[in-house]
Amino acid sequence: MTSLRAELRALHASRGERIPAELMAVMDRAAAELAASGQADRALAVGEQAPAFALPSATGATVSLDALLAAGPVVLTFYRGAWCPFCNLALRALQQHHDGITARGARLVAVSPQVPDASLSLTEKHALAFDVLSDLGSDTAKAYGLAFDLSDELAAVYERLGFDLQHVNGGHPRTLPLPATYVLDREGTVRWAFVHTDYTLRAEPADILTALDALT
């Protein structure tokens, strides 16, 4: 099976076939500024307690972190939305490893700032067997230290590319989460974390499984 890392690299290398060079320059500049901000270093880290949340799922049910932890360890991943091809690759990779995650007694849940209808479309399109939650306004992402605001320049690029964040993010178009994945033990303590400012990088599912194995 091809690694997620390799698939993400291939997708990144093909950007020039889909995105004009002047728009890519804006995106790369914004990415460099976000990396220089040091935000990833300020996000929730290993050894810290995960903030509680209760968020709507794609099907309208409310899913709380407390309820998830009552059933066992939790793999919690934050992504930008169904409009992001890198997010879609990462979610499909997690789905491919979902059986391995549940076999280790853990629950997988994904969180994005998009509205439940967009999450439902994503869930159906990729046949996701795990909960996809809507963090409208990114309050949960903020609690985890992951939320950041797009610059005017980058927001204009996304609009030109046809990403209607005003609609899919329920009136909160500028705020997105850093790519992040956490492995939480049953007490809600972060035992493993992947946080990065680069939206083209994601947690490797094999590393998540190794982190779950380390819990036992």
Question: What does it look like?
Answer:
The chain is of the alpha/beta class and 216 residues long. It has a single domain, classed as Glutaredoxin, CATH 3.40.30.10. The protein has eleven helices and nine strands. The strands form three sheets. The chain has a five-stranded mixed beta sheet with strand order 5-4-3-8-9. The chain is globular and about 50 Å long. The two termini are 26 Å apart.
Core attributes:
single chain, 216 residues, alpha/beta, Glutaredoxin, 5-stranded mixed beta sheet, two-stranded antiparallel sheet, 11 helices, 9 strands, 18% strand, globular
How would the blueprint of this fold be written?
Elements: H1 4-13, H2 21-36, H3 39-42, E1 54-56, E2 62-64, H4 65-71, E3 74-78, H5 85-96, H6 98-103, E4 107-112, H7 116-125, E5 131-134, H8 139-143, E6 147-149, H9 152-160, H10 165-168, E7 175-177, E8 180-184, E9 190-195, H11 205-215
Parallel strand pairs: 3-4, 4-5
Antiparallel strand pairs: 1-2, 3-8, 6-7, 8-9
Helix pairs in contact: 1-5
Short description:
The chain has 11 helices and 9 strands. It has helices spanning 4-13, 21-36, 39-42, 65-71, 85-96, 98-103, 116-125, 139-143, 152-160, 165-168, 205-215; strands at residues 54-56, 62-64, 74-78, 107-112, 131-134, 147-149, 175-177, 180-184, 190-195.
Kindly report the CATH topology: Glutaredoxin
CATH superfamily: Glutaredoxin
Stretches where pLDDT falls below 50 for ≥5 residues? none
**Global structural class:** alpha/beta
End-to-end Cα distance: 26 Å
Going across the major beta sheet, what is the strand order?
5-4-3-8-9
